[in-house]
Amino acid sequence: MEGVGGGDAGSAVAPLAKWRDELSRAFQYYLDRSTPNPVHRWLGTLAVVAVYVLRVFYVQGFYIVSYGLGIYILNLLIGFLSPKVDPELEALDGASLPTRGSDEFKPFIRRLPEFKFWYSITKAFCVAFLMTFFSVFDVPVFWPILLFYWVVLFTLTMKRQIMHMIKYKYVPFSIGKQRYTGKRPDAANSD
Fold it and tell me: In the beta sheet, which residues pair with residue 83?
């Protein structure tokens, strides 16, 4: 008699857990397939951004949500542009960036890899888009003040990041595969 009531609840949970596992597996499959296609991933994210911007423009609200989204994206951008090991902290340990040609080469490794950067931004825009359907998040504010404050915050933060890049001589971007060539012959020797 005791097992009759408990079996009904257990049988209802099993299909739900199976469905959730299948959905999770399918999502991970498509996420894995998108990994080697950064252009397609970013184009998809631009489409999500366009939908969000159109929604905010159409509704004429949700400026606090947009401001919070902007701050979050700025935080992600700093992680994307920063090295995994901060040279300021590394200098305290005795190791430092190479300063001479004979020093060991250390490649630039990001604190936040590109895939996680893309995934976090896409998730953030999706969550912000869903938040625009709930009026509790539509706090009335004077949006030009928020925009001005965000621009000032962005400018100061990027200035500090660029100064850090200049001080420790690293560039977080690389375009294509580097090609190395041998020494070029002198013009006088080519005759």
Answer: 110
